[in-house]
Design a protein that fits this description.
It is built from 2 helices and 5 strands; from the N terminus they run H-E-E-E-H-E-E. The protein has 117 residues and is an alpha+beta fold. The strands form 2 sheets. A 3-stranded antiparallel sheet has the order 3-4-5. Strands 1-2 form a two-stranded antiparallel ribbon.
Length: 117
């Protein structure tokens, strides 16, 4: 019972189509990637110590505040209550009502965002 030869794309045992061939000497390189859902869960109001996913530096994130959905909702609620003569703008002056954006101090890339809502 002779078997036909394997197709040309499977001629090198141990290789995977679409991937580079294994390095000589039998060494295996393993690439790991941090899941994206983990990033959104670890960012809160305070800076976070981590490794930057862009420049691979060990950093503590810098934070800045942006107006987000919660700020606008708080403004609308205050205006609806009847404080529309400027008091409804107070949430725009309070950092606790804003979203927190974390970025790398080395490469200035945005690493994550903590939304209040």
């Amino acid at each position: 019972m002779d078997q036909p030869p394997p197709p040309p794309q499977y001629s090198n045992p141990g290789s995977v189509p679409g991937q580079p061939p294994p390095p000589p000497g039998g060494n295996t390189v393993v690439y790991t990637q941090q899941p994206t859902f983990f990033n959104s869960m670890m960012f809160r109001e305070f800076p976070v110590a981590m490794t930057c996913t862009y420049c691979q530096a060990t950093i503590t994130t810098t934070t800045r505040y942006e107006t987000g959905t919660f700020t606008w909702v708080a403004c609308g609620v205050i205006a609806f209550i009847g404080c529309w003569m400027g008091c409804c703008l107070i949430p725009f002056c309070i950092d606790g009502c804003k979203d927190v954006v974390h970025s790398c101090p080395s490469c200035r890339q945005t690493l994550g965002k903590y939304s209040k809502m």
